[in-house]
């Protein structure tokens, strides 16, 4: 329906749309009513003709924004993969969880795959720690967190202490807490230089097989990952390459 309305004609009648889509007028009317309710189409009350609505502009802007973010992140992901030898990913907030927007996978045969579009559930690993630590102020914690593995932090009190450490360090660690045998490290991505109450829009991460990626190796990657996330944040604010890292992340109130 939207494609037909956007084929170059300024507007169309219900009869025209039903004929072009080869559907009953009642079906076309129901579809148009739903689209109109959400602002995706407008109906002229005098001519009773339909045209594309303003809500589509916001969707188009969001799609372009994601594409630009993936393009800006690519050199950082490539560099992180080269430095670590492991898979590098960019996650974005997606509802309560997150979704992979872009990734550069490890060259090793045994690796963690991270296809774009793959979704992580809430409270899963280092990405979730970053998004909670740098999320809306004072988010409510569940009475108990999921036990993805025997190493998962399930008690809210230790989890809150972990979030405090993440805010201070600007990075989050996952030592086989989400997937058995997998370690990961994540850092927050902001739109520009973050202030004390800034909310991260996503996270840059390095994730690898635990047998190859030790805890010591993860800690050595904290600096390069943090710098990459800060540079990407600066690029998002200025529209540039983000070569210079932003200032360190400030603390947030508990």
Structure characterization notes:
With 254 residues, the chain is α+β, with helices and mostly antiparallel strands. It has 2 domains: 2-53, Arc Repressor Mutant, subunit A (Orthogonal Bundle); 64-238, GAF domain (Beta-Lactamase), CATH 3.30.450. Helix content is 40%, strand content 17%. It has 7 helices and 8 strands; from the N terminus they run αααββαβββααβββα. It has helices at 2-5, 14-21, 25-37, 55-84, 125-133, 156-169, 215-238, and strands at residues 41-43, 50-52, 87-94, 97-104, 119-120, 172-175, 182-189, 202-209. The chain has a 6-stranded antiparallel sheet, with helices on both faces. The chain has a two-stranded antiparallel ribbon with strand order 1-2. The longest helix has 30 residues, at 55-84. The model is unreliable at 240-254 (pLDDT under 50).
Strand residues, percent: 15-25%
Distance between the termini: 48 Å
Largest sheet: 6 strands, antiparallel
Taking all Cα atoms into account, the compactness measure Rg is 22 Å
CATH C-level category of the largest domain:
Alpha Beta
Sketch the topology as an H/E string, one letter per element: HHHEEHEEEHHEEEH
| Secondary structure tally, helices | 7
Number of strands: 8
Q: Which fold name corresponds to the CATH topology of the largest domain? A: Beta-Lactamase
CATH 2nd-level architecture of the largest domain: 2-Layer Sandwich
Q: Spans with pLDDT under 50 lasting ≥5 residues?
A: 240-254
**What number of structural domains do the residues give?**
2
Strand order of the largest sheet: 5-4-3-8-7-6
Any idea what the shape is? elongated
- Rounded mean pLDDT is 86
Helix content: 40-55%
Structural class of the secondary elements?
alpha+beta
CATH superfamily of the largest domain: GAF domain
């Amino acid at each position: 329906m939207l494609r037909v309305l956007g084929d170059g004609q300024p507007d169309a009648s219900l009869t025209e749309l039903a004929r072009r889509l080869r559907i009953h007028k009642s079906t076309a009317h129901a579809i148009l009513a739903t689209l109109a309710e959400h602002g995706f189409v407008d109906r002229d009350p005098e001519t009773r003709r339909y045209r594309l609505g303003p809500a589509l502009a916001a969707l188009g802007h969001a799609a372009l924004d994601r594409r630009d973010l993936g393009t800006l992140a690519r050199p950082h992901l490539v560099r992180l993969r080269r430095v670590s030898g492991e898979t590098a990913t960019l996650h974005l907030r997606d509802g309560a969880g997150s979704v992979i927007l872009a990734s550069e996978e490890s060259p090793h045969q045994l690796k963690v795959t991270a296809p774009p579009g793959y979704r992580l559930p809430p409270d899963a690993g280092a990405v979730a720690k970053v998004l909670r630590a740098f999320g809306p102020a004072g988010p409510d914690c569940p009475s108990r967190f999921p036990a993805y593995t025997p190493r998962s932090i399930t008690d809210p009190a230790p989890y809150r202490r972990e979030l405090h450490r993440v805010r201070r360090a600007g990075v989050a660690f996952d030592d086989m807490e989400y997937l058995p045998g997998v370690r990961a490290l994540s850092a927050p991505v902001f739109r520009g230089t973050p202030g004390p109450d800034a909310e991260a829009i996503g996270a840059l991460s390095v994730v690898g097989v635990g047998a190859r990626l030790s805890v010591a190796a993860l800690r050595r990657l904290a600096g390069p990952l943090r710098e990459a996330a800060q540079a990407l944040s600066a690029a998002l604010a200025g529209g540039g390459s983000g070569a210079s890292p932003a200032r360190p992340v400030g603390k947030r109130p508990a």
